Amino acid sequence: MDRLHPTSLHQLPSDIAVPRYERDALRAGIVHLGVGAFQRAHLAVVTEAALHATNDLRWGIVGVSLRQADTRDALRPQAGLYTVAIRDAGEDGAPRETLQVVGNLLDVLVAPEDPEAVLQRIAHADTRIVSLTVTEKGYCHDPATHALRWDHPDIVHDLAHAAAPRSAVGMLVRGLQRRKARGLGSVTLLSLDNLPANGHTLRGLVLAFADKVDADLAAWIVAACTFPNSMVDRIVPRTTAADRERISARLGVRDAWPVLGEPFLDWVVEDRFAAGRPDWAAGGARFVDEAAPYETLKLRMVNGTHSALAYLGAMAGLATVDRAIAEPLLRGYIDALMREEIAPTLPPLPQLDLDAYRARLLQRYANPALQHQTRQIAMDGSQKLPQRLLGSVRDRLNADQPIERLALAVAAWLHYLRGVDEAGRAHEIQDPLAGALAEAMAQADQASQGVADAQAAERRRVEVFTRLTPLFGDLAAQPRFVAAVARGTQALRERGVFGTLQALC
Ligand code: CS2
After folding, report:
1. Which tens digits make up the pLDDT trace of 343-390?
2. How many structural domains is the chain composed of?
3. Is residue 1 part of a domain?
4. Ligand 1 mean position to 493 CA, how many Å?
5. Residues with CB under 6 A from ligand 1
6. Whose Cα sits closest to atom 8 in ligand 1?
7. What is the residue with the minimal CA distance to atom 5 of ligand 1?
8. Distance 280 CA to ligand 1 centre (A)
9. For residues 447 and 421, what is the distance between their CA atoms, to the nearest angstrom?
């Protein structure tokens, strides 16, 4: 089978969308750090729509992988072309798939192999936007305070090695340092990660690092760069070998690196671009003055319930989100969690029909064609829980409102951290703080040992565990929080996921 490539595009069936702009004339206006599946199914798709709508050829993308070479190795032989498969199910439940070949990825650089090439790209005259999807842990910060972790090995390394940064923050600052030295103009730094105030957070981290390097550089960044906040939403599960086979068969040429996504896509972004931007509205982006209310809505409703579903589902042996949400008890819990405990904490969004948003979300989770793994979402809990669940907890405690369902989601994470599901199957805890979490768990178990009363012992355990301040911050000292999480962990251990949910109804 031929490979997907500009020279094989003419062989594709006519129902598959392909780039219609002059690809050879495309310039790299965007450098994207973290060129994973999410960026290729979101930013690149919206950018492709903008290119088709305007034919403004300044907006090609150069992707950067900060760790692995696999994306570059797969996409170079395809000259950067790849397929986006949008999947859902028809009325009969059978999977449906729409394919589009995206052409705006001009190159993929692999930072560990050639950091110089990445710095040169950031400091290139064509570059107007540097965007990022490096996941929560890629920011090397304390999730509770958003402060840069000066003790993070990559940050320590990057302060000492100006020419070969490893972290996203180090790469950005050293790249901007070159821009400044070359007398190049403004640039927008655009975080597309699931962090609250993602632009603002990135700005704080970049300026902290830059200030350590050179105070003039920090001042230059303040004057030359903008950091718009944004909310991004599209479910993008990991691509499997079976996906690659199926998509290649339909294309009639082999695509080694396609991505999948749901039909839903939302992107709300602050319109503060220092050096222009593509006409992303053509791809459905919404430009606003302030993204914060949309971010809170999305992080708490979508990501908060996603994590809850992931931990409870994985512990109950439910491998995918659609199977988990098909369980009436889990669906009822997630629905009530949104309706009763999360929705009341949300900032007002006058145009939003929250009931419709909730119903739509449950429908998105039920999409059987995505096969989104609960264990994939369960990763990196220490970096996710603060903005997904703990903000809602905090708001409700302050308002003196019940937190039973939110606390159960946190308890489900603790339950999951034991590393074995309810059927005794082991799972690996993938988390940048895995070591600290295991240690906190062991200390918690030890502290509860001498306590005779089961309830008091559980409270003691949770109390000791929640002393992990980078995560829990002030919640550690909140007796109502500790007690509610302890009721959850005890119930989960004694009655399992379904027994616990039954009792909650
Ligand atoms: C998920 C998100 O993996 C996860 O943690 O909750 O990636 C989620 O699918 C997206 O944020 C949806 O927009």
Report:
1. 999 999 989 999 999 999 999 999 999 999 999 999 999 999 999 999
2. 2
3. no
4. 27
5. 194, 233-235, 302-303, 306, 376-377, 384
6. 235
7. 377
8. 22
9. 24
pLDDT at 143 over 90: no
Whole-number pLDDT of residue 249? 98
- Give the residue carrying structure tokens 């949770």: 462
> Are 413 and 302 contained in the same domain?
yes
Residues 452 and 491 in one domain: yes
Atom of ligand 1 nearest to the CA of 232: 13
- Above 90 in pLDDT, residue 477? no
> Average pLDDT of the chain?
97
Domain shared by 398 and 315, yes or no: yes
Does the predicted TM-score (pTM) go above 0.85?
yes
Strands 30-33 vs 129-132: parallel, antiparallel or unpaired: parallel
CATH code for the domain in which residue 232 is found: 3.40.50.720
Classify residue 109: in a domain, yes or no: yes
Please give the helix or strand (H or E) that residue 412 lies within, else none: helix 404-416
Tell me which residue has its CA closest to atom 10 in ligand 1.
Answer: 235
Task: Based on the fold, state whether residues 40 and 177 are members of the same structural domain.
Answer: yes
Give the Cα separation of 206 and 229 in Å (integer).
Answer: 15
- What's the Cα-to-Cα distance from 421 to each of 311, 415, 417, 463, 482, rounded to whole Å? 10, 9, 10, 23, 23
Same structural domain for residues 219 and 363?
no
Q: Please indicate, yes or no, whether residues 239 and 166 belong to a single structural domain of this protein.
A: yes
Q: Which atom of ligand 1 is nearest to the CA of 372?
A: 9
Same domain, 283 and 299: no
With beta carbons less than 8 A apart as the criterion, state whether 293 and 360 touch. no
235 CA to centre of ligand 1 in angstroms: 6
Give pLDDT tens digits for 407-453.
999 999 999 999 999 999 999 999 999 999 999 999 999 999 989 99
- Of the residues 230, 257, 288, which one is the last residue of a structural domain? 288
- Give the domain extent around 31: 6-288
How many other CB atoms are there within 10 angstroms of residue 160's CB atom?
8
- pLDDT of 505 reads 77
Q: What whole-number distance in Å separates Cα of residue 108 and Cα of residue 62?
A: 6
Q: Which residue has the tokens 């309830």?
A: 455
Mutate to test the pocket of ligand 1, among 295, 303, 388 (most ligand atoms within 8 A of CB): 303
- Tell me, yes or no, whether 453 and 484 share the same domain: yes
